[in-house]
Specification:
heterotrimer, A alpha/beta (about 250), B mainly alpha (about 325), C mainly alpha (about 290), B: about 325 residues, mainly alpha, globular, C: about 290 residues, ABC transporter involved in vitamin B12 uptake, BtuC, 2 strands
Chain lengths: ~250, ~325, ~290
């Protein structure tokens, strides 16, 4: 089954063309990376898939359902989740509260009016498990504002996984990290996303080639190439416009 | 809070008893006190409990959800008017009619206002809420039915009948009654803000769009909390009408809205015990200012508002919370 | 309604609309450029009206002197507000709103302390106090003057924004704060100047408006509500929107009060509600989030 299907997607900001006639498919269980120089439209694409931005025209389907005009939260309920390039957490709440809210977001208990939130033991247990997986359980009562940037990046991944999404969009999970932290994040992603369907954007080539099954190259809003990591490495044109232009 | 849930329930209960003992003692004192204090203090206590409910009802909208609504007195006032009209104009003096009707009308008004206001965000929300508040105020002001003896407002409201044979409210028993209702509201709101729903509101306050990405229909949450806040404001409004003997347009206007905002800010927004403290402070301060120089009360009110925002952002609640943690370490 | 009545009501509406425009333009510019929501704008209007009354009636100076003094006093009051509180509250909209609500109380009560609770009747310059005859109607000269002033000020604001260097900076500030900073323009100094100008205009509008409305303590609240409706109709950050919104509201108010006076008090808020439901970003707005 196709996890994601995009047909003839266009996006204009005023007169500026951000995405031009983009069509792509993503099969369930596949990890696909999107690479391309800055301004290639990667984050814009994520925002459109996610519902943060409306598409100018085109059609997006998620697991066979047309989501082009669905609201953001409805897409999440269908099994979509994402992380953000610039950390977007609930900064003045504790780590545990962040995770609890993320898990609860796709559970019916989110409408509970009376029972204390900490009384839902299965959610608390799941939050504990997730926080332990990213090594942040000890800091669960600290405000997100007060933890280090690297830890916030891990929280961003933990939050995106909390709903057990069927399709996960990772937007530059390693952005702003040091080399050693990048390796750690890459390990974390590999460990946590086994058998998951993923669309990932990142500038870190090691990370991208390591994680993904297939790679798609985006340039000024157009797809210029798609293939396995090896095929992309062998593609001269890609190397020229992207890898040749510097790592960043 | 988390640590307690994960520990054994036996220790948890013991800790809770220690934790809530001071509250319990204060509660018992407050319950007995009205019988032994001067007449004017009973009135002030009653007002404090009523405004405490009013302030808490705003706090779940302003403090927990981050929606600065400058029309909250509309719900308070329309409930008060409903109770007053039922009693004075229609001769129905049963509490069991006035109370639910007042709350219901407040809720309906909030639902209508919510649909309009939640079309917009941020700055526009508060401007729009201010305009809607003016509108409710102006309609009330201009409506002949809501006038008596050529002056604005409804006069001659008495304590309601409660349906118990041989029992009529006195000022002292009404004070106790208000206190019990305050406790009930506090308990319900306490459960509410600690429920999944209440936690979601905090998330919306932090970053509404992020919450949508996490799967929350934030419009629904804001709409619901707006109505729930109005229902509790309605409780306060009905109680207020019965003990104030008159209801005037002022009670649903700008000044009462800012009054409630000040109680929340002064006491500590985003905490549940802060606003009642803010309410007590303002009620007593207004009374004693009234003795010395009633003319200058708005000036003092304005200065308190400015100084609180500039120098004590978290309000008294924040300082108390720190003290609480020091006295009772974990 | 006869043709004369329609005509008179139209002129009344336009003159009232001009005052609303003067108020709302200050409100919307301060928000659009500095991101500050100043709810005490109506209170500044009121201060201007009372100061103007003192200068013109109490001390017998000329009306034009009164408009200038009213504007300057309001300008300095606004400056004190900005320097003492608002500049520390950059980007904290809720806090700005609460502080300026505090200032409404403070200014209204201080005004009451100084001038007493008695409202002041409308006053105008001696040379404007008569009526003028045309097409069989007689119409007060001072109302026509208000309209004239509105035209002059609109042109002045347009010229200021489009043709002067500081106006260009302000435009840039409205569009993109970071970019303006990057160009090395001192936004802090612009903020001070701009806040003074906008407060000045509020006070100035107070004296101009006093020709029609006099000076009352309730104005700090009441006129604010109307100015906010204008902002909702016109959209924030747009002076053109404030002009159109002000005129629409002024004319609407005039006709409603002539035709269905029972709902005159709240009908304009109904317009705000309708605009919010149909076009939440305002007629001219596109900037709202």
């Amino acid at each position: 089954m196709k996890a994601l299907e995009i047909k003839n997607l266009y996006k204009y900001f005023g007169g500026i063309q951000a995405i031009h006639d983009l069509s792509m498919n993503l099969d369930e269980g596949i990890k696909k990376a999107i690479i391309g120089p800055n301004g290639a439209g990667k984050t814009t694409l994520f925002n459109i898939i996610n519902g943060l931005l409306p598409a100018t025209s085109g059609k997006i389907s998620l697991f066979g359902r047309d989501i082009t005009h669905m609201s953001i939260h409805q897409r999440t309920q269908l099994g979509l989740a994402r992380s953000f390039q610039t950390t977007r957490l609930l900064f003045e709440l504790s780590l545990l509260d962040n995770i609890m809210l993320a898990i609860q977001g796709t559970q019916s208990s989110r409408f509970g009016l009376f029972r204390p939130v900490m009384g839902y033991s299965h959610i608390v247990a799941k939050a504990q498990k997730l926080l332990e997986l990213v090594d942040l359980w000890e800091k669960r009562n600290e405000m997100v504002l007060n933890i280090a940037h690297g830890e916030q990046r891990k929280m961003e991944i933990a939050l995106s996984l909390a709903s057990e999404p069927r399709l996960l969009l990772l937007d530059e999970p390693a952005s702003g990290l040091t080399t050693s932290e990048r390796a750690e994040i890459a390990q974390l992603i590999l460990r946590l996303t086994e058998n998951r369907t993923i669309l990932i954007v990142d500038h870190d080539m090691d990370l991208v080639f390591n994680i993904s099954d297939r790679i798609l190259v985006l340039h000024y809003g157009k797809i210029i190439s798609e293939g396995t990591p090896d095929e992309i490495r062998a593609n001269e044109r890609v190397m020229e416009i992207y890898l040749g232009g510097g790592e960043d | 809070m988390v640590a307690t849930t994960l520990e054994s329930s036996g220790r948890l209960q013991k800790k809770n008893i220690i934790r809530f003992a001071p509250i319990l003692i204060i509660g018992i004192i407050l319950f007995i006190l009205p019988s032994f204090i001067p007449h004017y203090l009973v009135g002030l206590f009653t007002l404090t409990f009523i405004f405490a409910i009013f302030a808490m009802s705003l706090d779940i909208v302003l403090g927990y959800t981050g929606l600065l609504s400058i029309m909250h007195a509309s719900f308070f006032g329309i409930a008060a008017y409903t109770a007053a009209v039922l009693m004075v104009k229609m001769g129905i003096n049963s509490f069991w009619v006035g109370f639910p009707c007042g709350i219901l009308i407040a809720g309906i008004l909030a639902a209508i206002a919510g649909v309009v206001l939640l079309r917009v965000h941020g700055i526009y929300f508060l401007i729009a809420s201010l305009c809607l508040g003016y509108m409710v105020y102006s309609i009330t002001w201009g409506w002949d039915y809501l006038e008596m003896y050529q002056s604005k407002g409804i006069m001659g409201i008495d304590f309601p009948g409660i349906g118990i044979p041989g029992f009529t409210f006195t000022e002292v028993s009404y004070c106790r009654f208000s206190f019990l209702l305050f406790l009930l509201c506090f308990y319900l709101l306490y459960r509410f803000v600690n429920s999944p729903f209440g936690y979601s509101l905090r998330g919306i306050r932090e970053d509404e769009e992020r919450m949508q990405v996490l799967g929350y229909n934030t419009w629904f949450y804001k709409f619901a909390v707006f109505i729930i806040g109005a229902l509790f404001a309605g409780v306060a409004g009905v109680l207020f009408a019965y003990c104030n003997t008159t209801v005037e347009p002022e009670h649903l206007g700008f000044s009462y809205s800012t009054y409630a905002i000040l109680m929340v800010i002064l006491g500590g927004s985003g905490t549940l015990f802060g606003p009642p403290i803010g309410a007590a402070l303002l009620v007593f301060l207004e009374f004693y200012t009234g003795i010395v120089s009633p003319e200058r009360w708005p000036l003092i009110l304005g200065l308190i508002l400015i100084l609180t925002i500039m120098f004590s952002r978290g309000g008294i609640g924040l300082h108390l919370q720190r003290l609480w943690k020091k006295v009772l370490p974990s | 309604m006869t043709f004369e009545q329609i005509f008179i009501n139209l002129l009344n509406g336009i003159s009232f609309g001009v005052i609303l425009f003067l108020l709302a333009s200050g409100l919307t510019m301060v928000y659009g450029i500095m991101g500050i929501v100043n709810l005490a704008h109506g209170a500044l209007y009121m201060v201007g009206a009372y100061v103007g009354w003192s200068v013109a009636i109490q001390h017998g100076f000329s009306y034009w002197m009164a408009t200038l003094t009213g504007g300057i006093v309001a300008g300095f009051v606004g400056l004190v507000m900005e320097r003492a509180t608002l500049r520390y509250l950059y980007r904290q909209i809720n806090e700005q709103v609460l502080v300026t609500i505090g200032f409404i109380y403070v200014l209204t009560n201080l005004t009451q302390w100084i001038w007493g609770p008695r409202p002041r009747a409308p006053f105008t310059a001696g040379m404007l106090s008569g009526t003028i005859q045309f097409w069989g109607c007689s119409y007060p000269i001072h109302r026509l003057t208000v309209i004239l002033i509105g035209i002059v000020i609109s042109i002045a604001i347009w010229w200021f924004q489009e043709k002067t260097r500081i106006g260009a900076m302000i435009q840039a500030g409205m569009d993109d704060k970071e970019m303006t900073m990057g160009l090395g323009i001192n936004l802090n100094r612009i903020s001070v100047i701009l806040f003074f100008i906008c407060s000045f205009v509020a006070g100035f509008a107070g004296v101009i408006g006093a020709q029609l409305l006099g000076a009352t303590l309730g104005q700090g609240f009441h006129i604010l509500g109307l100015a906010l409706v204008v902002v909702i109709i016109g959209g924030t950050g747009s002076v053109g929107g404030a002009l159109i919104g002000g005129l629409i509201l002024g004319i609407f108010d005039s006709f409603i009060n002539a035709l269905v006076p029972q709902i005159g008090m709240w009908a304009m808020y109904l317009i705000a509600v309708i605009v919010l439901l149909v076009r939440p970003q305002g007629i001219m707005g596109g900037r709202m989030k």
